[in-house]
Amino acid sequence: MATFTNQVVWITGASSGIGEALVYEFAKRNATLILSARRKEELDRVRKNCPMEFQSNIFILPLDLSDSPSLSHAVQKAIQFKGHVDILINNAGLGQRSLILETSPEADRQIMEINYFGTVNLTKYLLSHFVSRKKGHFVTVSSLTGKFGTPYRSAYAASKHALHGFFDALRAEHWKDNILATMICPGFIDTSLSTSAVYGNALKETDKRNYSRKSAAWCAVKIIQAIQNKKEEIYIGGKEVLAVYIKRFFPSLFSRIIRKVPVR
User: Which partner for 63 in 36, 109, 123, 194 could form a disulfide, CB atoms 3.0-4.6 Å apart?
Assistant: First the structure.
């Protein structure tokens, strides 16, 4: 198992789901961790779940991506913990389960504010630190819906699509600074994202149906492998990953298939 000794890894959305699973996997690999999310008590719980001998290398930094003025200060505080940050994992986000006609403009803006603008602003504030050190790695948890839109995910898919455009540009602008950007596109992963989603009429209950999903722990291992291998983009999941390639090579077929996708 490769280690991340002496590397500082900052994880947003670290209080549950994929973010929480990443904390446990990075702790096994001896990384110094900064955990961010809105709920400090949940971050404390996650830290306490790590082996006692690793807890001194885990720092808590509460963060709300929708509070833009606070993000610059958060970056400075993150750097102060150990003097530098090596990897930022942009994992925090808001889900959506609603038809376009049932999704208000306010909801669209809320999702974009957190998923896109919050992630981009945090990245920009940390970018100068990476440039000054001539190294750094941005890892952004997108989604398979960042590669194609599906029913009931209009705003969510739009926010994830936008992230791909931004980080493609960042990668092209800063490759000479030895700055990496990895896009993570999970499919059906067993997380609590749906509990914080924007819902339309009668969708919350149907969203609780059981589907074949991979565990967050399994996903976290795949993400760490992608980081170690300096991948630019990876797709994580089961058969749903095939949709990326169907969309790419058989777009008309994809359009017919996606119409029949149930609420998930």
Answer: 36
Question: What is the tens place of the pLDDT at every residue in 120-156?
Answer: 999 999 999 999 999 999 999 999 999 999 999 999 9
Look up residue 75 and give its amino acid: V
Q: How many residues does the chain have?
A: 264
Residues 119, 90 contacting (CB under 8 angstroms): yes
pTM of the shown model: 0.93
Active site residue 245: no
**64, 41 in Cβ contact below 8 A?**
no
258: phi then psi, degrees, rounded to nearest 5:
-70, -25
Catalytic residue, chosen from 156, 199, 211, 245, is: 156
H helices present in the chain, as ranges: 17-28, 40-48, 68-82, 105-111, 119-133, 154-174, 203-206, 216-228, 242-249, 251-258
* pLDDT tens for each residue of 161-203: 999 999 999 999 999 999 999 999 999 998 866 555 665 654 5
Tokens 């609780």 map to which residue? 208
